[in-house]
């Protein structure tokens, strides 16, 4: 299963482009296919049709609400397209006054308290994706696939930290974690430290994950 695909809707001004690009880069490292449609359009391509194609193939839409975003007609059309397809929409409020409007007015925005920390915002987006029926399965599958093919202890730790953000795993999903520890030494031999002072000790990454996330109760 491919990575979950998320369409980034943003104001193409300097602030909007910067925020969207930073969020795109962080989400991509978290195994999310974040799409900035206008940047992906090749010269000579029908750009309107290209944007529609990206919208149609995206499982969720994230509104990058920097200053001027809500006044951009194209941004509102992208939201309308997502509403028409009944895909989940997350509005990230980067600037005062850029709060959800119209059919989204009753939804709670994700407040970007510190726009200069895109990794924190990306992690919040990950947690939101993990709660959506349209996106959870693909998100968890991409993280488990990354764990299974991890080629370093660092990559294993990063996958484990992201899996924790998803909340909990089904029995089958957890079985994939344990099997990854059997077949991949980069998973089996990875470790984490727990405790403080004289009680600080090293545990396997699998045991560390069990402390934070495990299979759903049968």
TrEMBL record:
Under InterPro entries, the record lists:
TIR_dom, Toll_tir_struct_dom_sf
Domain named TIR: which ranges?
6-107
Q: Which GO terms describe its biological process?
A: signal transduction
What protein is this chain from?
A: TIR domain-containing protein
Origin species = Actinomyces ruminicola
